[in-house]
Amino acid sequence: MIASVLAAVSALSVVEPEASTPEPPAPTPAVASAERGVISYPPSFFADVGPSTALEMVQRLPGFAFDRGAAVRGLSGSGGNVLIDGEPPVSKNDSLEEILRRIPVSSVLRIDVIRGGAPGIDMQGRTVIANVVRKSAAGLKGAFVWTMWPISDGRFFFGPRAEMQWREGQRLVELSFVLGKGPQDMAGDGTRVRVDANGNLLIRSDIDNDAQGSRRWLVGAYETPLAGGRLRLNGAYIGGDADGEYYDDIRFPSVSREFQYFSEDRAQSELGLRWNRRAGANQLDVVAFQQWNKTDNYARFDSPTLTRLFRNEKDVSETVGRLHFRRTASPALNLEAGIEGALNTLDSATSLRINSGLVPLPAANVTVEEQRGEVFAVAAVRVSPRLAFEFALRQEASTVTSSGDVALEKSLSFTKPRATVTWSPIESLQVRGRIEREVTQLNFDDFVANNSVTQTGAVAAGNPDLSPMQAWVGELAVERRFLKSGVFTVTLRRSELKDVIDRAPVFLGSVVADAPANIGDGWRNEVQFSLSAPLDGIGLRQATLKAQLSLRETEVIDPTTGKPRPISAVQSFSPPPQISAVRESEWELRYAQDLPRLRSTWGFDIFGPYIDRFYRLSEIETLKSEIVILVFGEWKARPDLSLRVELQSLARDTARVRDVWSGPRNTAPLLYRDFRDLQYDGAVQFRLRKTFG
Asked: Which DSSP state fits 304?
């Protein structure tokens, strides 16, 4: 069926033109340099695509997978794999995706894809990175976007977005405003079945589940020359909320109703500063960052025999300062050194009531402070035009103190070396290798109790006495370029893990709880295949296929059973749930075709099924998502006016399986298995974009 659709739509672009209709010009090829490890893509390379923003250009880079970055404390390791004018953005809540979306195509001079390193570029510890280089032309540019979502269940969401960029000489002003509401596609309607250990039916019910979220964003930035260098100030206020209702109408063994509700209100603000100055072969960067986050979580569960109320109020702040010095000692040698300091604080208050009785929770009310410092040095050496090395050494030290329900103070110190090699034996082939000791940053969400409270009586406690997980990582990537823009990459990765953070039982009197804990050593293997290929050779003109497949296996010793098992998925308990999983397999397929004569682009994204599994003291929870399909089409009525239509999350099916024991899994018998299957029928999104300037 898909092949038929491809052929039918492709026919629109292969019909012979009339004599009066000129053939559209071929896109300008990218400029490659094996010696520098840099491939430059000018705007003309994307001309037939007709992108509106730098984000759309980055998403169409051959062989490049956009990474938004990680939500970690500090600036080291938090940025994604895209730089703006050679520098990572000084922001966190204002995501890299949003920053790129605000840069209009008319402001982009080129995009460089850097493999293995380049002079004056901070690779952020990565072997491949993209750099969006902006023009310096003066003027006012901007856009207004109106978005609408009719949902299959009858709900209707909408939201405006406005952005502008003004440049005069060396000064730049940026402003952006976003207001809107949208659906949560992991919610939906369906059924639930519960059976005992022998397969006998215990419960059959119908589920009605809706969830949604809203956002209110105001973002601005200002750039100007200062003291012989360049200063950039940025600020953001990001407010929003999320809520959901879950009705479980039980039909067997008797008629009753269970009801669950959650809500989250959040207010985030941040200020960032970057000043850099270049003097010959030297460059100095000064970075400062401050953010404040306030979150209020509420969850309620009601049944004929049980009422459960959970509430958590959390205030988090972060202050970061960083000095970064770079020197180009010679065309073959680049040196870097720097220091970063951070102060992080958390103040959290949590309460849980079951049938009006207050239930004690480990680490329910805590105040945590972390002082962390890091020094680093980097040397990048280009031995020959085709062979380059990078050597880095980082030393991290921190002190964590906690007061309230858990009083402690501890100091941590880690040495983090890294070595990378990039070898290009021929113009179209590159081999990259990396050996590095990685240290994860502690997640403040693990320090406090959360609302993952099951009907078996187990609670999810907090644990401020955690150590970061460490890993020795070995990586090998082979990249082969073919045709004018085809890329195929295979990456192998092995990680030897220490102090794995997973779930483990803790005891507080008669209360048994699950809590994050360091449960010992483990390992992780991963292989990734990535393909970006033009399809002109099979008759699909100006069409591109991008595919990615990841296969993983992990192992750790289960603290409850003492036997090997995979590492648990990691779940954030601030609703709506966000999953950061160690999935055994993931794949995605992206197809896009440009139809210049129709001034249009169409395509689809397909995301393969995946499984997230959570191991707890008396429960194993498995979340399964089936194939997710998105189909899109965009029409440019005029160069400054476009309409994009997306059919989102078509027929998305999400299942949850809970295997629950009557006590610890290693000693108690299986109590029941609970199967929930939810169907989200999708949504249609209309996005009208008007640009000016």
From this structure: S
